[in-house]
Amino acid sequence: MADPARARKLAKRISQIVASAIEHDVKDPRLGSVTITDTKITADLHDATVYYTVLGENLDSAPDFAGAAAALESARGVLRTKVGQGTGVRYTPTLTFVADSIPDDARRIEELLAKAREADAEVARQATGAQHAGEADPYKAPRADEDADEDTGDDELTEEETRG
User: Which pLDDT tens digit goes with each residue over 82-141?
Assistant: First the structure.
């Protein structure tokens, strides 16, 4: 087992090497819009999972995930060789490429938050002219005539009762 700090450093270095190799060394046009987002490496430093995302040509076009995945699979050997040369570790880790779902998840969360803001605004609009149901003071207050009945005779004892 390797030191976790060493594994993090190696994963970061693998990300840098793979991103640089995709940009400069691999001549596949399908990889032109691929961005390496993260790399995770196992504790024994033998297997690395490289996460990537694919950007579209413009904002309206959908990214080509299938083409990018095929291009990364075909360039896996070249990329592993570059990682071995760039890291200098005894055993070059095998590379597995996984499409990163974080951008899609973030977009979905943003949409849900926008819906929640709209619902909150609608509730606030409905509450502007609303009044409470019932009286303003919901607690029962004693009436004036009940106060008079309670004060007379109950608290005061006559002389006969005290001698008694």
Answer: 999 999 888 999 999 999 888 788 889 999 999 999 999 999 898 888 887 777 777 877
Q: What torsion do the CA atoms of 57, 63, 64, 66 make, to the nearest 10 degrees?
A: 160
Outline where the chain has alpha helix (H): 4-24, 65-74, 76-87, 102-127, 144-151, 159-163
The structure's pTM equals: 0.65
Cα(103)–Cα(82) distance, integer angstroms: 28
Q: Tell me if residue 69 falls in helix, strand or coil.
A: helix
Name beta bridge partners: 52. Answer: 36, 99
State what percent of residues in the chain have pLDDT above 70.
87
Q: Residue holding tokens 């004892």?
A: 157
The backbone region for 88, taken as left when phi is positive above 0, alpha when psi lies in -120 to 50, beta otherwise, is: left
Contact partners, residue 12, CB within 8 Å, separation at least 6 = 39
